[in-house]
């Protein structure tokens, strides 16, 4: 969202193998996190519309 409360709706096919259950924006950045039933967490850059990092459920 921008400073005026306007947002952008994204559709990312196959972003997760399970349904997305959480989305969390990181304040004052263009980044946000998604979590899903596949138990993976992904960091996205909304400005560039790209995946930045992927934490897999089995990573230690």
Task: Describe what you observe in this structure.
- This protein is mainly β and 60 residues long.
- The chain has one domain.
- The chain is built from no helices and four strands.
- A four-stranded antiparallel β-sheet has the order 1-2-3-4, with no helix packed on it.
- The radius of gyration is 12 Å and the shape is globular.
- The mean pLDDT is 83.
- This is Transcription factor WD40-like family.
- Keywords: WD repeat.
- Pfam families: WD40.
- WD repeats lie at residues 13-54.
Main sheet characteristics: 4 strands, antiparallel
Q: Would you tell me the structural class of the helices and strands?
A: mainly beta
Helical content stands at under 10%
Give the beta-strand count. Answer: 4
Cα distance spanning the termini: 32 Å
Number of helices: 0
Low-confidence stretches: none
Sequence of strands across the biggest β-sheet: 1-2-3-4
The dominant shape is globular
Order of helices and strands: EEEE
Tally of individual domains: 1
């Amino acid at each position: 969202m921008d400073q005026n409360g306007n947002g952008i709706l994204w559709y990312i096919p196959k972003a997760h193998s399970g349904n997305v259950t959480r989305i969390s924006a990181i304040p004052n950045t263009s980044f946000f996190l998604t979590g899903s039933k596949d138990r993976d967490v992904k960091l996205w850059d909304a400005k560039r519309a790209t995946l930045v990092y992927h934490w897999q459920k089995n990573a230690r």
